[in-house]
Design brief:
Low-confidence stretches: none
Helix content: 40-55%
Largest sheet: 3 strands, parallel
Order of helices and strands: HHEHEHEHHHHH
Number of helices: 9
Radius of gyration: 19 Å
Structural class: mainly alpha
Mean pLDDT: 86
Strand order of the largest sheet: 1-2-3
Strand content: 5-15%
């Protein structure tokens, strides 16, 4: 791509106060808004929630997730809520610019993943998170207000969907796919 192609970017702004992001977008009217998944240092919500809020407000901007959290579950969720692209932060600058120009021209960008995942339900995600936090089935049943049998059924569905045969494997794969939230920053 020649230098002349890059002049399509007239302005670049960084917003660190999530509280006024909607008003900034409405006033500046950016063609593209880049959002990270991890906003823990500036917000209580994650980037996917922020993207959903921006779209629900009817802001006329293309939303692209630019993140180091390049996990299948996040790509799937981003696509499901209707963002325009999902890009790993480890991309080369010239390739990023080419993709952003394509997105600005109406192309959606979601790189293919080799790993297919059957989406977990909210209950299954919660139970998997509790397993990762070290809770036993009996404790999980108490926390989610369900019988141990119901929790066991959910755990079996998790095993089936993740194609694993133990809680340890489920937690390991859940971490890899992004279903399990960790307390450490990017």
């Amino acid at each position: 791509m020649a230098f002349e192609d890059y002049v399509q970017i007239n302005q670049f702004s960084i917003i660190t106060d999530i509280g006024n992001v909607i008003s900034v977008i409405e006033n500046v009217k950016p063609d593209i808004t880049l959002i990270d998944i991890n906003l823990s240092n500036i917000s209580n919500e994650d980037g996917l929630e922020l993207a959903k809020n921006i779209m629900n407000r009817g802001c006329k901007t293309r939303i692209v997730m630019l993140t180091g959290y390049d996990l299948p579950v996040y790509r799937h969720e981003a696509k499901k809520i209707g963002v325009n692209g999902f890009i790993n932060k480890n991309i080369m600058p010239d390739e990023l610019l080419e993709i952003l120009i394509d997105i600005n021209n109406g192309i959606y960008y979601f790189p293919k993943t080799l790993e297919y995942i059957e989406e977990l339900t909210d209950s299954e995600k919660q139970i998997l998170q509790l397993l990762a936090n070290g809770y036993k089935r009996k404790d999980i049943a108490s926390i989610v207000f369900a019988s141990e049998r119901t929790v066991s059924n959910h755990i079996q569905h998790i095993f089936d969907k993740l194609d694993v045969s133990s809680s340890l494997e489920a937690v390991t794969k859940g971490l890899k796919l992004g279903y399990i939230q960790t307390d450490y920053a990017e």
